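Researcher: I've been going back and forth with a colleague about how EAL domain-containing protein might be arranged in three dimensions. Neither of us has a model we trust, so I'd like an independent prediction. The organism is Roseovarius pelagicus, in case that matters for your notes. Sequence below.
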Amino acid sequence: MGTRDKSIWADVPAGHHDPLSYAVTKRDQSVISMVQQAVRHKQVMLAYQPVVPAGQATRVAFYEGLIRVLDETGRIIPAKDFIEVIETTETGRVIDCLALEKGLRALLRHPDLRLSINMSARSIGYEPWMRTLRKGLKAGPTVGERLILEITESSAMIVPELVVNFMKDLQKQEVSFALDDFGAGFTSFRYLKQFYFDILKIDGQFIRGIAQDPDNQVMTTALATIGRQFDMFTVAESVERAEDAAYLTAIGIDCLQGYYYGAPTVKPAWLSTSVARVAV
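Model: Here is an independent structure prediction for EAL domain-containing protein. You can compare it with whatever you and your colleague have in mind.
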């Protein structure tokens, strides 16, 4: 091992196999610490992004409430920057609780709002999250019918039987369910038939640039066909260009979501005016 190689290993503590694994571990620990600090100081909020009916950009079918945390400098950190790191930890469960609590509060305060909130299948077995859900559903007579719970495809497949039973119980209370990031994971079609999701959200990797991408066109059409076969409402994620929106509308996608229609914001107009611009 040369002098340069020795310097790379110099700061790596015993028990770590190589500098890369140590760097990844250290980064993950830093992310977890940042999120834990944000939770302790209640520096957590929802950013709202509209989901619009295809071909009707001036209307909103519902909003998605996306969890955000503030770091020590006050910078807003999106979930994509930390959610994978905390997903399997109790901090992940606490974040799910806070997102649900804030979403339920928004539904209670804004009776015309329909809102989707992300959750991990792991939170089904987390009693504080279940307690938050039960309390929120009892708070108002229409809260349940205006709540959509989004579960990622990869999360749903961790405990599919538990998810199926959970959905059956909640759908009796008119809560809707969305299968998020469809196409990105490894859903067993046997379980897809049993899940009875109300909404199918097609992963953005198949949507971006679809108007000019024959492969994405084939994949998205196939995924949308699956959704229709199982009577699921289809939503295309990550719509960023007018030509993509036009193509998706032409092939019969029900709703569109992405920066073309609006970036997630912690200060939507309806939140400050107490008037939710939602088409129901």
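Researcher: What would you highlight for our discussion?
Model: I'd start with this: The chain has one domain: 43-273. After that, consider the following. The radius of gyration is 20 Å.
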